[in-house]
Amino acid sequence: MVLTAFTVNRSTAQETIFEGTTVTYSSEQSGGVGMHTNGFHGFYRFGNYKGAFKKQMFEIELANIRHPQEVKSVNPMEDDLRGYIYGKKNALYTLRPSIGIHNVFIPKQSLRGVSITYILQVGPSLGLAKPVYLNVEKLDQQGNRVIVRERYDPNKHDQGVIYGRASFLNGFGELKLYPGLFVKAGLQFEYGGTQEDIRAIEVGLTADLYAEKIPMMAFTSNRQLFLNLYVAILMGNRKLK
């Protein structure tokens, strides 16, 4: 018998046709990593089916955001030094808890097929600015050249005295919070080879809007709105009802 049509069940589950078999789901979870226009991110999401092809998803994401005008520099007079960003005052990381709706508008019709889902997530963006520390050259009381670790100060540290970037661990005790709002919109292309497993690629746009400009760089303008294109890969699983 050839199946020519199927009806959508409006209960709290999804029904999808897999080569003649009706499969009903109740929940799913997944995690992924990706890159965006100005950095990298990782996330975990979970949620429940609210209709045949509609899911309510909760997500927690951590990302770094670079200033568009960051340029890596090195001290030309020294070898084997860690590069630094001249003028960079703070590194920005953001924690994004969000809630969203995912709609499957092209369902998978076989195990070898691809489904396409439109996703929309909204929530707070908790921007965390970490001060940048550098190794700089100074003269001690005896007039000897010494290398010391200092928080970058554009009024004190020109490129002639910067020896290199200090350890990444410096500055975590001085994090400053910048609250804001986060929106993500994208398309998810799922190609997993089994009914329960999730394997997908996701592309889209994110926006972080903060209450004030974040002082990331000296000598240039700073921003409070960050728009980024992103691509991510994710894996997970869904539970049958």
Outline of the structure:
The protein has a single domain (14-240), classed as Beta Barrel (Porin), CATH 2.40.160.20. Helices cover 0% and strands 60% of the residues. The protein has no helices and 14 strands.
Give structural notes.
- The chain has 241 residues and is mainly β.
- It has one domain (14-240): Porin, CATH 2.40.160.20.
- The chain contains no helices and 14 strands.
- It has strands spanning 14-18, 21-36, 39-49, 54-65, 72-73, 84-85, 90-106, 115-131, 133-139, 145-151, 162-165, 176-190, 197-210, 225-240.
- The protein has an 8-stranded antiparallel β-barrel. A 3-stranded antiparallel sheet has the order 10-9-11, with no helix packed on it. A two-stranded antiparallel sheet has the order 5-6.
- Mean pLDDT is 86; it is low at 1-20.
Radius of gyration: 24 Å
What is the overall shape?
A: elongated
Q: Classify the helix fraction into a percent range.
A: under 10%
Assigned CATH class: Mainly Beta
How large a portion of the residues is in β-strands, by DSSP E?
over 45%
| N-to-C SSE string, H for helix and E for strand | EEEEEEEEEEEEEE
The strand order across the widest sheet is 2-3-4-7-8-12-13-14
What is the CA–CA distance across the termini? 26 Å
Biggest pleated-sheet summary: 8 strands, antiparallel, barrel
Number of helices, where a helix is a run of at least 4 consecutive DSSP H or I residues: 0
- As for the CATH topology, it is Porin
Query: Which structural class matches the secondary elements?
Result: mainly beta
Helix/strand layout:
Elements: E1 14-18, E2 21-36, E3 39-49, E4 54-65, E5 72-73, E6 84-85, E7 90-106, E8 115-131, E9 133-139, E10 145-151, E11 162-165, E12 176-190, E13 197-210, E14 225-240
Antiparallel strand pairs: 1-2, 2-3, 2-14, 3-4, 4-7, 5-6, 7-8, 8-12, 9-10, 9-11, 12-13, 13-14
